[in-house]
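Sequence in, structure out.
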Amino acid sequence: MADLSLVYGGDLAIGATGDLAISTGSALTEQRVLRRLLTNPDDYIWQLSYGAGLGRFVGAAGAAGQIAAVARAQLHQETRVAQTPLPRIGVNHADPSGIAMTIDYRDAMTGQSVALTLPG
């Protein structure tokens, strides 16, 4: 199944034929992972537990362990992310003003390994 192509925080993309672009395969999984990690809990009214709300950690000192735990719990609920092998999540202080996150997971639909980096 495909979804409309929408990069989180952006606009719908236009396809090669002028219609709305769709997202499939690993691009769709990445799109869903980003949406899940950046959506605030309680914002999705049909599933109130959906979303990690990583934006709430902006400026939070010493929150690396909590960020990783919240992200891990949400990735466990994402059906397009394989649970074997378990996704690996790294949270590092990128510089004094930010935290960078790396997520390595296997796409359950395509079998591809994906490395996703969220800059601080």
